[in-house]
Amino acid sequence: MPPATTPFPPPRTVRRRVRRGAVLGALAAAAALVGSCFAAPGAARASVPPPPSGWTQVWSDDFDGPAGTPPSGANWKYDLGTGFGTGEIETMTNSTANVALDGNGDLRITALRDAGGNWTSGRIESLRDDFQPPAGGKLRIESRIQMPGLTGAAAAGYWPAFWTLGQPLRTGGTWPSVGEFDILEDVNGQNLAYGTLHCGVDPGGPCNESSGLGGRTACPGSPCPGNWHTYALEWDRSVSPEQLRWYVDGQQYWSVNSSQVDATTWANATNHGVFVIYDLAMGGGFPNGVAGTTTPTGATQSGGSMLIDYVSVLSSGGGFTPPPSGQSAYGTIQAESYSAQSGTQTENCSDSGGGQDVGWIANGDWLEYNGLDFGSSGATQFRARVASGAAAGVSGLVQVRLDSPTATPVGDFAVANTGGWQSWTTVPANISRVTGVHDVYLTFASGQPADFVNVNWFTFGS
Q: In what residue span(s) does the CBM6 domain sit (predicted)?
């Protein structure tokens, strides 16, 4: 069992007031076994580790790319502004001074104070919000993180976090009933990792809000601040009662199970997908409560960074397959995952992440993707990862149509030779606003009969 914990974080919020929660549970022997199977601490690695035996990788990002560039727009969106219902005082921005790749395979989120004493930082959330275990199976959300290397007075007010929120929050749900899994939090440069489940009602309720149901532990081997550690949450539907379990470097330190709350509260918090969030807040109820004073202070050092080596979502058991309908349109949709096609073939892909792409695409060909869910707010942007080795003078259009390959396109973009059939580039396009659930068709039009494009993946945004 973890030591007694006081105080626990108040809720954060995703523009609606929400924040932080996660859990774990199992025997010490099982935790030791998990530690032998999953990623361990050490120097930053360049790629996401392969899934252990019995697990399948659902989604990942290894944050590769040139230094000073933003994280992938196909995977992430920014959460901008200030406050978030927690008392934190920074302004979250989309500036690469606050959120950027470091060129060494890491994402860097940096908190900065200007000459006027105003703080800025960064907060991003995954476009995909459909992460949940298969029926009778397990889901693991894991990330290798180096928290800011600051302690003592220099760290006052720093509040790094890796967490999730329930998908219904994006479609009118309320916090904390939709569930919040805080996979990692720390404040003020302590050598502690906090894990928390938020659920039920606020204040009070079955989940003791706004504190939540949480535990904490010191990081094994080396202090949490300034060192690489792997933080994970396992969400287990293969046992009864269902469990949430928290880990640091493969060692379980906390768990919550469904018998600890009433059935309705558990269902509201867990019977849906979640999306992933990273942020580095400054000040607020949690760091202030631990410090016993308002933070940050004049002694707080500007420029502390949280580094993220990778994030990986894994599934095990339960016969996991992608849902046939209702799949989020805002995740990365692999081109080869089509429901039907005409005129194309798949091939091995040398783009980042490997796998396959769809090629041999020419005029009149199409790809069909059933049941993509655009939600109620709707999408107005489309991005696709494409390559072309077409001859000079050969080009064409990649078109988006809804519910029929002959419907009027809602948007398109042109593509010509990109330098080769495996020379990949991401092309954006504006589309007419799309809401609800649709079968999406990518159709291809060209004035020449020759193949003109390969497609690796695509996604939608707003």
A: 331-461
CA distances for 114 relative to 89, 111, 120, 124, 262, angstroms: 13, 10, 8, 22, 47
Q: Are 131 and 275 in contact (CB under 8 A)?
A: yes
Domains and CATH numbers, the chain: 28-316 (2.60.120.200), 327-461 (2.60.120.260)
Query: Is the peptide bond preceding residue 7 cis, with omega within 30 degrees of 0?
Result: yes
* Residue 433, token pair as written in the block: 């606003």
In contact, 456 and 386? CB cutoff 8 Å: yes
Strand (E) or helix (H) holding 185: strand 180-185
The Cβ-side half-sphere exposure at 346, using a 13 Å CA radius, reads 15
For 389-462, list the strands marked E by DSSP.
396-402, 411-415, 420-434, 437-445, 453-461
Return the bridge partners of 331, or none: none
Q: DSSP code of 258?
A: G
DSSP 8-state secondary structure symbol assigned to residue 298? T
- Structure pTM? 0.66
Which pLDDT tens digits describe the chain residue by residue (462 residues)?
A: 222 333 344 444 332 334 332 222 222 233 333 333 455 455 555 578 889 999 999 999 999 999 999 999 889 999 999 988 899 999 999 999 999 999 999 999 999 999 999 999 999 999 999 899 988 899 999 999 999 999 999 999 999 999 999 998 888 889 999 999 999 999 999 999 999 999 999 999 999 999 999 999 999 999 999 999 999 999 999 999 999 999 999 999 999 999 999 999 999 999 999 999 999 999 999 999 999 999 999 999 999 999 999 999 999 987 434 433 457 888 888 898 888 889 988 888 888 766 788 999 999 999 999 889 898 888 999 999 999 999 999 999 999 999 999 999 999 999 999 999 999 999 999 999 999 999 999 999 999 999 999 999 999 987
Task: Kindly list the distances between the CA atom of residue 274 and the CA atoms of 77, 92, 170, 255, 433, in Å, as whole numbers in the listed order.
Answer: 15, 22, 10, 18, 24
* 145 within 8 A of 308, measured Cβ to Cβ: yes
User: H/E element holding 263?
Assistant: helix 263-270
- How far apart, in Å, are the Cα atoms of 164 and each of 20, 75, 178? 7, 15, 11
Those residues whose C-beta lies under 8 Å from the C-beta of residue 379, and which sit 6 or more positions away, are 329, 330, 431, 433, 434, 435, 460, 461, 462
Which is nearest to 14 in space by CA: 176, 234, 132? Answer: 176
